[in-house]
Amino acid sequence: MRAGSTLLVTLLLTAAVCTSCAESADSPSPPPAPTRTASLGTTTPSSAATSTLSATTSTEPAAAPSPALAPAPAPVPTAIFGAAAPIRIAGYPGLVGSGFAAVALAAGFTSDGAAVGVCFNSGGADTATCRFQDRAGAEQAIDVPMTFPPGEPERLDPPSAARGMPMLRRVGPAAYDYEAPPLTGTWAFGRDIVLHVAEIKGESNGVAAPRLRFGGSVRGRAAVFPIEIQRPPVDSVPSDVHFIRPNAVALSPDGQDLGLVVHSAVGEYDSTYTLHRIPARTLAARIYAMTAGNARGAGDIAASRSLCALAVAADARAAAETCEP
User: How far apart are CA 193 and CA 221, in angstroms?
Assistant: First the structure.
């Protein structure tokens, strides 16, 4: 079964985050500005579905995926952020399966960092599908034979078809008892930011569909979530049964990009997987900026200015959307 709805990914931009990073602490706070949402793209749930970053400011589904925003070529200034440090995350990894099939077997970045991808078995077939998305958002899908050793998890044949992506680990007796691969590596913002993943379940009344939120916290402050992924409710499927879950959160080998592999299933054999590649410094800038907004709302103007300065240093273009110079 493959449901016919679309997957909507939004980038939450709080326009009131840092209205003026250079203003005086004695200046009165302006009235809150409205919250905007920016579409990261939509995907149709097919074996060739794809989702890429977009710079639009509309919540309407895009007609076609937009090219991914490339990370700025200049290196992240170590004088400001310090040396790269291990990446940390809360709320991940966890079990990825349920009673549904279409379980991922491998997911994350390829060993050369050229693509983020996923290999999954849609169930009831002796082949798997492997999908890869490059930096520009172009996607390739291939079918790969599988072997089924007695008493062991199914395997890709050959394993090299996964192009070095991490394999999910079978942790239980059921065919869907797989655990997402751990997030590893070092990145420029490891001293400041802990990433956070929050899976929000749907409601049984069918009105509120499940959501997946992705963001982080800065130096122990409250987590903020610039990215939210959701799939509208599907007719005749209770929202508390439908789920949306990360099968991989990965850092590219060069530390420049974060990859998300998301599975959203509403029924058996639903292979709605979407691939998301996010420039690390862009995500960091938006986490700093949204945290600055929280500090400003609490009356801590000095902290707000400091956090906005970090946002600008991470990615001036991303910070400009929420922190005015």
Answer: 10
Q: E-assigned strands of the chain?
A: 7-14, 35-43, 85-86, 89-90, 103-109, 115-121, 127-134, 139-147, 155-156, 169-170, 178-179, 186-187, 193-200, 211-218, 224-230, 243-251, 257-265, 273-279
CB 229 within 8 A of CB 211: yes
Structure tokens, 202: 């749907």
3-state secondary structure of 218: strand
Helix (H) or strand (E) holding 293: helix 280-297
For 220-238, how does the pLDDT look when each residue is reduced to its tens digit (9 = 90+)?
Answer: 999 999 999 987 666 656 5
Q: Alpha-carbon distance 114 to 52, whole Å?
A: 15
pLDDT of residue 210: 82
Cβ–Cβ contacts within 10 Å for residue 140, how many?
12
145-185 residue pLDDT tens: 888 777 667 778 788 999 999 998 877 766 667 889 999 99
Strand partners, 195: 89, 216
Kindly indicate the confidence band of residue 100, based on its pLDDT and cuts at 50, 70 and 90. low
Q: Which of these, 188, 167, 211, 177, lies nearest to 315 by C-alpha position? A: 188
- Cis amide bond preceding 158, omega within 30: yes
* 284/302 Cα distance (integer angstroms): 20
Categorize the per-residue pLDDT at 205 as very low, low, confident or very high, splitting at 50, 70 and 90: low
- Go through 58-88 and write b for each residue having 16 or more CB atoms within 10 A of its CB, e for each that does not: eeeebeebbebbebbeeebeeeebeebeebe
Q: Which residues, listed in sequence order, are joined to residue 129 by a DSSP beta bridge?
A: 120, 143
Mean pLDDT of 224-253: 81
Q: Which residues contact 287 (CB under 8 A, 6 or more apart)?
A: 193, 215, 216, 217, 218, 224, 226
What is the distance between the alpha carbons of residues 167 and 247, in angstroms, rounded to a whole number? 11
The pTM of this model reads: 0.76
Tokens standing for residue 210: 């499940």
Furthest CA-CA distance within the chain: 72
